[in-house]
Structures are given as structure tokens and as C-alpha cells.
Please model this.
Amino acid sequence: MWLETFALGSVIDRFSFRALALVYFIAVFAVGAIGQLGHSVIFVSFAIFAAGFCIVGGQIAANALAATFYPTSVRAPASAGRSGSDGSARSLDRLSEAR
Model:
């Protein structure tokens, strides 16, 4: 989990969060390739690696995006509500009250 975090973190630092959209776009094709490349173990393994790399690393990068997007006063409720964690309804209530 730390490999994709550091790799995508440096890419996003260099190219902004627009790279995050590209990462999720690659993940779409990697997940689709898992079902289409069923005859080759090597290609399926690569597709699974690429999908996991992009999805896990992209989720962590999305949390960093939320931290830079929301003001400090509502950062924790906004991140919790965006992640769908427990108590997200309360978090979203606090977020709407802060705005």
C-alpha cells in the first residue's frame, strides 16, 4: 500500500491533481482488462496489479485532495463524509452548518 502512495504522491505533486483523473481513467481500463484477458495469467496478473495500484493509490490521493480543497474548520467532517465512514451523516450535517 505504501508503494503506490509514494509513487502517485510524487506524480500528483509534480502534475497537480489532474493526474488523479488520469489514474482513475487507467484503473477503469485495468479493471476491464481483468475480465477480457482471461487466457493469459501474465496479462491478468499485470491488469490486477495495475488496477490495485491505481485504485488504492488514487483513493489515498483523493484524501489528500480533500485536505487541500476544504477549509481547515470543516476538513475532518468533509473528509469523513466523503469517505463514507461511520457517522458520515453527522459529519455532513456539520459541513453544511459550517458553510
Observations:
- Residues 2-71 form one domain.
- Helices lie at 2-15, 18-36, 41-69, 75-83, 88-98.
- The chain has one domain: 2-71.
- The chain has a mean pLDDT of 77.
